[in-house]
Amino acid sequence: MTAFAPDPYDRDCPTRQLLDRIGDQWTVLIVGTLGDGPLRFTEIGKRVAGISQKMLTQTLRALVRDGILERRMYPEIPPRVEYELTDLGRDLAEPLGVLTEWATQHMDRVARAREEYDRAASGR
Amino acid sequence: MTAFAPDPYDRDCPTRQLLDRIGDQWTVLIVGTLGDGPLRFTEIGKRVAGISQKMLTQTLRALVRDGILERRMYPEIPPRVEYELTDLGRDLAEPLGVLTEWATQHMDRVARAREEYDRAASGR
DNA sequence: CTGCATCCTGCGCGATACTG
DNA sequence: CAGTATCGCGCAGGATGCAG
């Protein structure tokens, strides 16, 4: 029996769409970071080190568009903008948390598997 | 308190590595497909429609290297090769299943959020 | 501070052709 | 059938500069 969704082969199936979204790693990292609560633009950028300003802007906008994040703008001088998970976003954070937990628990095994594989391959 | 792993900002942290892996959607789709049991190379290609032979080969090799899949070769004429989830792979399939389930349940809300967002944006 | 526009480069990936 | 090898393009994404 199939462990997964109907046909992930249909370009329009939800699974595909979600994968496209979490495909860029930034989505997952940002959602994870915001699990603590709302954060300002710059603050997110500092937490998710390595992300370019362009990708940050881009990813944030996409997430707001998807209803995962809410953007709250305070028309002050200087302007302040905060991003926060919506209910939907918090809901998504949960399965993502399961995944990251899996990662932290098993990635050492993956690392060992890689070493072994590479050693075997080079030895040939 | 942080909902996620230590620092996803470290390029070497397990979370990052996993994300890189599931980043290419093919990984998730292939692991999902193999949840039913072992499959032949060509069979996987047919199930995961849209994947090029190159990406199929590439992804399969990467997954074998990571110890997620096992490659079983039968030296017959014509040659037959089967891929199967390892214990580790089956273990990964579970959290992935949770994610895809989330997708099937909530992607309609995402779709609506997008429409609304686009409508508001274009109306301006 | 929080963006948006532009330019530019690398390389991911598809297409194609060839082997055992 | 199950791959490897090679070429070529498209576009994701980094760097830089400007705006409100």
TrEMBL record, chains A, B:
It comes from Amycolatopsis albispora. Keywords: DNA-binding, Transcription, Transcription regulation. Residues 13-111 form the HTH hxlR-type domain. Signal peptide: none annotated. This is HxlR family transcriptional regulator. GO terms for molecular function: DNA binding. SUPFAM superfamilies: Winged helix' DNA-binding domain. Pfam families: HxlR (PF01638).
